[in-house]
Structure formats: C-alpha cells, structure tokens
Amino acid sequence: MNTGLLIIRAAAGLLLAGHGTQKAFGWFGGRGFSATSQGFHSMGYRPGHIAAALAVVGELGGGVLLALGLLTPLAAAAVIGVMLNAAHVHWPRFWVTQGGLEYPLVLALVGAGIGFTGPGRFSLDHAFGWSLAGNAWGVAAVVVGVASALLTLVAKRFGQAAARQEAGAATETNAARAA
C-alpha cells in the first residue's frame, strides 16, 4: 500500500507541479506568467495576475507538497481547489480529447483520495511523525478545497460583471463621441 501511495502521489504531484511551472515560468512549453495572467483575465478571472498566482500556488505548490507527502491535507486541498476551477473552465465537455474536464477531475479526485488515506509511510509527514490521515483530515481537505474553488468562482462571477459594466461604459462613451 505504501509503495502504491508513493507512486500515485509522485506521479500526480509532479505532473501537476509541471503544469504550475508552465504557468509560472514558461517551462515545458508553457506560456509563462504574463501570458497566463492575460489568459485568466480573458476568461473572466479579474484581476488576471491574482488568479494566475493562485493557479501557480495550487498547481506548483500543491503538486510539490503532494509528491513529497508533506502537509498532505493542505496539499490535497490545494489540488482539489485548483483542479475544480480547471474543471469548471472545461465544462461542459468531459473527455480530455475534446478539451474536457476529465484530467482536472481525475487530479481533484486523486487529491481527495490522498487527503483521506494520507501519504503513506514513504512521505515527509511520516518521517516527521505526523499522523495526517483519516476521515477528519480527508473531510477537512475536501471542504477547504471545495470552498476555495467556490470562492474563486464567485470572484470570477463578480469580475465578469465588472467587465460587462466596463464594456457598456466604453460603448456609451464611444457612441457619445460619434454623435
């Protein structure tokens, strides 16, 4: 069991951290922070640089913590939160081959599963003598991850409303100038 948990944590965590480095530094064919910020802004996450920073922290930070088995409930919450937002971006398509939410959903579920089972014996949590496994830690990770995802989506909704107001004001100004 411990070896299986190590393989799952390392694979999921390092792949997710790689996505974070794409966003932060442009590594592995990524666009880098500036372009990522602009992309988040265009999707309605305002301000885009804050949303991009949150995505980097969730993916890179959460992925590294998950891979190491360090502060595992926090890592699980970060993975769940960032991946639920990614799944929302890809909604309503499901399969990844169609640009769907399958991949982020799987990673969110891996985060939740590790949140409940804990990181196993081959982890830094275990090396430090921390027992961060079980239902209470799993529920806490899921609640914090889902809450962070929902808060981000609510902020996105407000950002989209502000963008519509800005666009409407610009249209009115341009119409007044033309008249």
Descriptors for this entry?
single chain; 179 residues; mainly alpha; 7 helices; elongated
Describe this structure in words.
The structure is a single chain. The chain is mainly α. The protein has one domain. The protein has seven helices and no strands. The longest helix is centred in the C-terminal third of the chain and has 44 residues, at 135-178. The radius of gyration is 19 Å and the shape is elongated.
| Shape assignment | elongated
Number of helices: 7
Q: Please report which band the strand proportion falls in: under 5%, 5-15%, 15-25%, 25-35%, 35-45% or over 45%.
A: under 5%
Mean pLDDT: 93
Which structural category do the helix and sheet elements fall into? mainly alpha
Cα radius of gyration in angstroms: 19 Å
What is the first-to-last residue Cα distance?
73 Å
Largest sheet: none
Q: In terms of per-residue confidence, which ranges show pLDDT below 50 for 5 or more consecutive residues?
A: none
Encode the helix/strand succession as letters.
HHHHHHH
Summarize the structure in short.
By secondary structure, the protein is mostly helical. The chain is built from 7 helices and no strands. The model has no long low-confidence stretch (mean pLDDT 93).
Question: What is the secondary structure topology, with strand pairs?
Answer:
Blueprint: H1 2-25, H2 32-42, H3 48-68, H4 72-90, H5 102-117, H6 124-127, H7 135-178
Helix pairs in contact: 1-2, 1-3, 2-3, 3-4, 4-5, 4-7, 5-7
